[in-house]
Amino acid sequence: MKHTLKYFFSIWLLMSLFLAQAQDTIPTKTSSPRTKIEGEIPEAPKQASAKPLEATKTDTIIPVKKDRYGLRVGVDLYKLTRGLYDSNYKGIELVGDYRLTKKYYLAAELGSEDKTTEDDRLNTTTKGTYIKAGFDYNAYENWLDMENIISIGLRGGFSTFSQELNSYKTYNPYPYWGEMPWKPSGETFSGLTASWLEVVAGVKVKIVNNLFVGFSLRMNVLITDKKPSDNFENLYIPGFNRTYAGNFGAGFNYTVTYFVPLYKKTVKPKNK
């Protein structure tokens, strides 16, 4: 009996130790799946995905453009060389312009002419001086340092001159015996004047630094004209050229000019 109790007591003790060991090894449930550790930095809440960044515009260095302003002076080669092949003509014309703004130029021409004109019944010699002044508008958009000009402009012209009647032919309404012969005269009419308006279209191109060549066409309309006499009209007016159909005239010139720069202005870029 004594040995039986001892046996049951030993089994009970072993089972108690086994149950205690098993209870220590079973994990206990917690309210949170993750245990907070002291000193740990909490994660920032996730935000909505940001919009893709726009492409960064790269700055480009644009060269500074400066326009030159100054005086351009020269001569009309057509009038200067015409006397070499036309014995009835002597003349010279000085031309010039001044750049007032980016597009507008003040312009002027000053000259003198000695021209002998022969009509059907009159042979006259005109001598005088003239001046024309106005403006040109440059319609050409230059690149970088180009300074070419495609312009249209307006001039007001004024001339003082004299007319000499070299010879004349009397009109014969009945030319049965032929035309009347030329009669010498030599009569001179001084103190004559004329004024006109002139529309000019031209081109100037820079061929080397500061040197330009140009060409222009001109249409004239006469405003005032002091005639020598009732029977004698002005066939040629210095600066206006030959008179056609009464009050209208036309002309052209071919110039070589030199530009004298005085100052520069920075060109402001256009806003796109």
Structure write-up:
- With 272 residues, the protein is mainly beta.
- The chain has 2 helices and 10 strands.
- The chain has an 8-stranded antiparallel β-barrel. Strands 8-9 form a two-stranded antiparallel sheet.
- Strand 2 (89-99) and strand 3 form a beta hairpin.
> What is the 3D shape?
elongated
Spatial order of strands in the largest sheet: 1-2-3-4-5-6-7-10
Return the structural class.
Answer: mainly beta
Radius of gyration (CA) equals 51 Å
Helix and strand sequence: HEHEEEEEEEEE
Strand count, sense and closure of the main sheet? 8 strands, antiparallel, barrel
Strand content: over 45%
Overall mean confidence score, pLDDT: 81
Tell me the distance between the termini: 116 Å
